[in-house]
Amino acid sequence: MTTDARKARVTGASSTIPATGSIQSALANAAAGVSLRQVTKKYGPVTAVETITLDIPAGYYCCLLGPSGCGKTTVLRMIAGHEEITSGDVFIGDRRVNDIPAAKRNTSMMFQSYALFPHMTVWQNIEFGLEMQKISDTERKARVGEMLELVGLSHLSNRKSSQLSGGQQQRIALARALVTRPQVLMLDEPLSALDENLRVQMRTELRRIQKQFGMTFVQVTHHTEEAFSLSDMVVVMSHGRLDQVATPSQMFKAPASQFVAKFMGDNNIFQGKVRHCIPEPASDVDVIELEVDGIGSLYSQGYAVPLGSTAACSVRPDLIRIEAIGAGSGQPNHRVNHVTARIVSIEMTGYVTRITLMEEKTGKDLLCKVRTTDWEADPYSEGQVVSLRWSEGDCVFLPH
Amino acid sequence: MAATQKTPFSAHLLTVFFALFVLFLYGPMIAVFLLSLQGPEGQLTFPMRGFSFHWIGAVFGQQRIGNFVEAFGRSFWLGLLVMLITVVFSVLAGLAFRTNFRGSNLVFYLTISSLIVPSILVSLGIGVVFSLLNLPVQWYSSALAGHLTWTLPFAFLIMLGIFGRFNPAYEEAARDLGASDRTTFWRIVFPLIASSVIGVGLLGFTLSYDEFTRTSLISGETNTLPLEIFGMTTNVTSPALYALGTLTTVFSFVLIAIALFTMQKLEELQNQQER
Questions:
Q1: Torsion angle of alpha carbons A199, A207, A167, A180, nearest 10°?
Q2: Domains in chain B, start-ordered, CATH in brackets?
């Protein structure tokens, strides 16, 4: 296996990680899932994480997403063994690891600042974990070499970490974490220190390596786009609790709470009172009529809740149609949501044009995103009053 | 090109002030240094009568100026001992204070207060306790204790600063990779703080090497070097006294130079540790 891996070509200035399928065998340890059972973490009187139960299947790329202070890093550190668990259980595979130190959990962590040892070379950094496992010299050499090839930085093995760029440090940190063949890899905001272009590039590489090894990755991030693009499974947290656990596409289409809808950014959220629940015979969801102050009834899809309770509905900015006043409204379908708004600003950001509007009666800010090509084919000007429409099926009911 | 700005008057004033400061700081030392190079007929005061290394040689000559060599030896070994103890315990204390253990505040203030208590009182107190316990005062016992009351709190404060800046992620990364606590300390933490530890050691040595007040009442029958030199001022009337001062100063400088050199080498080795 090592010879094959060695043959793997490092191309060009090694700005990309070579796709070397043969290295797969270098990480022989089977991936393990992670389970949290009623896990709570308290710092004195402060509860950082409150009775979380979560299952991350083996081989999944899972992102813990949330604003700073929501407890996501604490969860990661409890799985890795760098934080004691106040109550509850953590399992890695079938093994309860509450009392097992970080060193013996078969997990690896990539730290936010990478924490590369500054007094060691790149090679020594990667070798350290193998040395601790008392692995023989020859095997150590082979495995460190493989890892350096995997991240495409073989030519930097004698450098000190301070002589590396941010992206190179990130890769060395990844190599150091992977070389011990962990069952689960924990990543704490691995891309936050990189600039935008590099971040997108490293994102792709992280995902490729994860797929290549079929390893379980658990990553903390506060970046929705990053979480969506990387994960099989996104976990949104706020105030130490789980808000939603879903695939990126599920979450994008149907955020489960106002918090999630807001955190994903750009969603238009309307708060109101539930006035009607209309069962839909053909589907398992109901149409819910929400009475929104100053705007009137808005229809969305969701599950029955008590009439009169306060709730909200959310519509994505790309699902709102902008029309001229009066146009096509000759026979308005009463189930189509409709508001009138004035265009405040128009920003052409590239593929997409962002249109900020203000609802005429309530002054509420609204956001629409239109494909630039479509917008330019049928543009409106700033200050113009337009009609906004979206169907009930595109509007998500948010019970809380 | 921009017009050259006129230097403000205050800047000139500050320059004069700084020049005076430097003069007062180094003037006395330079005077002693020059006088130690008096010719053989030279006196304790200016003017210089010729130029020679006569008095430097005289220090090592017959025992006419007191027991210099032995006093130097005592101060040297005492300094090393103080340095060693200071380094070990300040590093340990620094490590301990990274966790918020019960009573850490009390221990902190107790330690620091030793810097505030008048030195002569510390010396007196140690002397009293030793006589109470019927122990003889010696440079290597009571004087050692006196020096430690001075160097330990200092070194402790410095170590707190060093560990305050130390990124715990390095240790977590090491443990994550399977290192035991002991390995983590020796392979990761210690190399990263090594240059600072050398600094602390050097500080401990120099503080001890020229410590006077705390030693004055408890060095026993034998003198440390500062006590010996002080004694000489009353009975040595030749520039050999200055020569001795020059020699001990040169010794201190050499020591500092060695330490700085080592620190720089280590720094180069580890590059910047804080990011």
A1: 150
A2: 26-66+236-275 (no CATH), 78-228 (1.10.3720.10)
